[in-house]
């Protein structure tokens, strides 16, 4: 097998595309021939030693991928050789094959493209869990999506629209705002050139958004929260800007608002039945065309450094996907 190996997490330049021995298949796991893998922001952080999880060295990065089952380990039920699957496995995706616990794999229905499947689980599960479960988004409500042109942001636009909500998409350039409009956003805000609070006041006639979806953090958070509607829900997804904000808690009192943490990975571990049901519903939405991953670029697997450079420059709209022949 071939894989991108990280022996020293000092950055992307230290990764090596190497021939490695095929991993031994443990009980309870499946071996997957990887057809496609997508980049998520933690993939960049982990090779820079900036992520909360510090895997033992050396390791193969790549959290999310799709492919074909080539071997089934002892004790595994529900999977067979030749079956098409997708997985959010944590590590190992930037390679030609990987062994993962069967419980992490999602069977793919017919017609689910490998490239789409590789960009599906993390972003759509996170966004659905955030908006529908934690945020209790209702039809007719207004949702503000920060970082709306990114992987989770584009998924959130589609899910919110499918739920009947009005979507205000906020992004960092006019081009990204235009991409959000094409995905169905009702209005957009370029927060590098426009005042977020002023624009939200005008777009909501002073009421503010009912739900705020925030994977960005940093200096946008307080401005957004000060604009939230009465009984609004502020969804904390992540901190792509790099800074964890400190919100004045008196604002929750004044607005009768809630700050709601969203940790899809932990939800999937603690509530696997509900997570499986959610993934099934999302797969059905994909099959009917309600949702579809936005693919910024599809590149060969050996061009991982190019993909990382695009992500680091914050040029990505949707997700970058890498493929094996």
From TrEMBL:
Q: A Gene Ontology molecular-function term? A: quinone reductase (NADPH) activity
**For the Enoyl reductase (ER) domain, which residue ranges apply?**
11-322
Instruction: Kindly report, in one word, the top-level EC class recorded for this enzyme.
Output: oxidoreductase
Q: Which domain of life is it from?
A: Bacteria
Q: What Gene3D superfamilies does the record point to?
A: Medium-chain alcohol dehydrogenases, catalytic domain, NAD(P)-binding Rossmann-like Domain
Q: Which InterPro entries does this UniProt record tie to the protein?
A: ADH-like_C, ADH-like_N, ER, GroES-like_sf, NAD(P)-bd_dom_sf, Quin_OxRdtase/zeta-crystal_CS, Zn-ADH-like_protein
Q: Which UniProt keywords apply?
A: Oxidoreductase
Keyword Oxidoreductase annotated: yes
Task: Identify one Pfam family in the record.
Answer: ADH_N
SUPFAM superfamilies from the entry? GroES-like, NAD(P)-binding Rossmann-fold domains
Question: Which SMART domains does the annotation name?
Answer: PKS_ER
Recorded E.C. number(s)?
1.6.5.5
Record PANTHER family: QUINONE OXIDOREDUCTASE-LIKE PROTEIN 2 (PTHR43677:SF4), SHORT-CHAIN DEHYDROGENASE/REDUCTASE (PTHR43677)
**Protein name per UniProt:** NADPH2:quinone reductase
UniProt organism field? Roseateles asaccharophilus
């Amino acid at each position: 097998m071939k894989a991108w190996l990280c022996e020293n997490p000092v950055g992307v330049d230290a990764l090596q595309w190497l021939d490695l021995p095929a991993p031994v298949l443990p009980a309870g796991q499946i071996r997957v021939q990887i057809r496609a893998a997508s980049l998520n922001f933690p993939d960049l952080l982990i090779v820079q030693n900036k992520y909360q999880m510090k895997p033992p060295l050396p390791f193969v990065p790549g959290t999310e991928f799709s492919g074909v089952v080539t071997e089934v380990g002892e004790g595994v039920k529900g999977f067979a050789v030749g079956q098409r699957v997708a997985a959010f496995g944590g590590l190992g995706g930037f390679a030609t094959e990987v062994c993962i616990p069967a419980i992490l794999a999602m069977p793919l229905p017919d017609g689910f493209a490998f490239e789409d499947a590789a960009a599906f689980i993390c972003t759509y599960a996170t966004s659905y869990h955030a908006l529908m479960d934690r945020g209790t988004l209702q039809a007719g409500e207004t949702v503000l999506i920060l970082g709306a042109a990114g992987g989770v942001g584009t998924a959130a636009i589609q899910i919110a629209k499918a739920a009947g909500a009005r979507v205000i998409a906020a992004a960092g350039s006019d081009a990204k705002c235009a991409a959000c409009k094409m995905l169905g956003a009702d209005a957009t805000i370029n927060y590098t050139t426009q005042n977020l609070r002023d624009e939200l006041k005008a777009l909501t006639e002073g009421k503010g958004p009912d739900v705020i979806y925030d994977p960005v953090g940093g200096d946008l958070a307080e401005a957004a929260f000060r604009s939230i509607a009465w009984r609004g829900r502020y969804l904390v997804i992540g901190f792509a800007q790099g800074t964890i904000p400190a919100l004045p808690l008196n604002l929750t009192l004044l607005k009768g608002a809630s700050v709601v943490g969203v940790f899809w990975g932990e939800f999937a571990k603690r509530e696997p039945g509900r997570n499986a049901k959610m993934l099934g519903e999302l797969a059905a939405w994909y099959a009917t065309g309600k949702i579809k991953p936005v693919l910024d670029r599809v590149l060969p697997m050996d061009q991982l450094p190019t993909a990382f450079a695009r992500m680091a420059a914050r040029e990505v709209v949707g997700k970058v996907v890498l493929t094996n022949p």
